[in-house]
Design goal:
This protein is of the alpha/beta class. It has one domain: Rossmann fold, CATH 3.40.50.720. The protein is 36% helix and 15% strand. The protein contains 10 helices and 9 strands. The protein has a 7-stranded parallel β-sheet, sandwiched between helices. Strands 7-8 form a two-stranded antiparallel ribbon. A hairpin with a 2-residue loop joins strand 7 and strand 8 (240-241). Helix 6 (142-163) packs parallel to helix 7 (192-214). It binds nicotinamide-adenine-dinucleotide. Nicotinamide-adenine-dinucleotide (NAD) is lined by residues 15-17, 20-23, 42, 45, 78-81, 126-129, 151, 176-178, 223, 225-226, 228-231, 243. Nicotinamide-adenine-dinucleotide (NAD) binds next to helix 1, strand 5 and helix 8.
């Protein structure tokens, strides 16, 4: 039987602060495959995450198919906008949600994970942030744009730089992108579309450089819309949120009209990281019910020629 077996593998998953997002789904799928999980949680959310975990708020989501509970080896504070302590501005240092925490920059956490666990196998980048995400690109400031690129795209380059030497040969890294990197998705603003385009381009260049340097693979999943905490923050027009529109749009227009489950992205991530994908690197893998393949929105009134009960193009499975 061909199965994903990650027993003995260790993974650093950056970008989990609750059980609603892709980071959680990926970590859980990797745990299902037997991997051991190390978490990086955004520094200001670390306390709430660990308290919620301890209070049992994630217990239902922690159930694994073998009857055990999903556990992590250790959770570290992480602010992926900073590479080293001297990058951290005074106002962040003094912020009360950072004040109690000593080490949270990417270089420090890579070093700490190395000291605590030695070499690991995989890294997952499941984080993004754009302070001006609600603004169209035309209204985005330089600082907003650069902040989006810094925390959503360069953070992956930095993670690979710092964890690369600490990954076993045959290791791999993945990140998560969105179709707005290559097609216009109104509402996905603040330079996030640009950051995702950079993330996908960097995946190819890093695949080459890190493949030659450390023998590791680099891939990115372009995931479909999910109602995560970050996605809910993108904004709304009146009562309808951006993310709900995107979910409805995909259901109306994608080749597959079923719901997209975060677990499906988790399973694709487990495959991409695993030795089953040992010849796959530099790839953007779409896990989105196929919506990326469409050139038109079939539910547009302009497509009425293709609409109608007798038309198989619109028949749902
Ligand atoms: P999420 O809220 O679960 O994850 C985003 C995480 O990023 C949060 O845990 C947040 O705390 C963390 N974060 C933000 N800034 C950070 C920083 N500076 N340092 C460290 N962590 C930071 O939401 P999600 O939607 O599952 O996002 C995970 C990834 O999936 C992101 O890259 C996102 O762009 C991508 N993605 C999401 C969707 C979607 O529809 N939700 C679609 C495609 C791709």
């Amino acid at each position: 039987m061909l199965k994903i077996d990650l027993k003995g593998k260790r993974v650093f998953v950056a970008g989990i602060a609750d059980d609603q997002g892709y980071g959680w789904a990926i970590a859980k799928a990797l745990a299902e495959a037997g991997a051991e999980i190390i978490i990086g949680t955004w520094t200001p959310l670390l306390k709430i995450f660990t308290q919620s975990w301890a209070a049992g708020k994630f217990d239902e989501s922690r159930q694994l198919s073998n009857g055990k509970m999903f556990e992590y080896l250790k959770v570290y504070p992480l602010d992926a906008s900073f590479d080293k302590p001297s990058d951290v501005p005074q106002e962040i240092r003094e912020n009360k949600r950072y004040a109690d925490v000593q080490r949270y920059t990417i270089s420090e956490i890579a070093e700490d994970v190395g000291n605590d666990f030695g070499k690991i196998d995989y890294i997952v980048h499941a984080l993004a942030n754009a302070p001006e995400v609600k603004k169209p690109l035309l209204e985005t400031s330089r600082s907003g744009y650069l902040a989006a690129s810094s925390s959503s795209a360069y953070s992956f380059v930095s993670l690979v730089q710092h964890f690369g030497p600490r990954l076993n040969h045959g290791g791999a890294a993945i990140s998560l992108s969105y179709i707005a990197s290559e097609r216009v998705v109104p509402g996905y603003g603040g330079g996030m579309s640009s950051a995702k385009a950079a993330l996908e381009s960097d995946t190819r260049t890093l695949a080459w450089e890190a493949g030659r340097k450390w023998g590791i693979r680099i891939n990115v999943i372009s995931a479909g819309a999910l109602r995560s905490r970050a996605a809910r923050a993108i904004g709304s027009a009146g009562a309808v949120s951006f993310i709900d529109c995107m979910i409805d749009y995909a259901k109306a227009n994608a080749p597959l009209t079923k719901d997209l489950d975060a677990e499906e992205v988790g399973q694709a991530a487990a495959f991409l990281l695993s030795p089953l994908a040992s010849a796959i690197t530099g790839v953007t893998l779409y896990v989105d019910n196929g919506v990326h393949a469409m050139g038109v929105a079939v539910d547009s009134p302009a497509m009425r020629v293709y609409q109608g009960e007798e038309n198989p193009a619109l028949t749902t499975a």
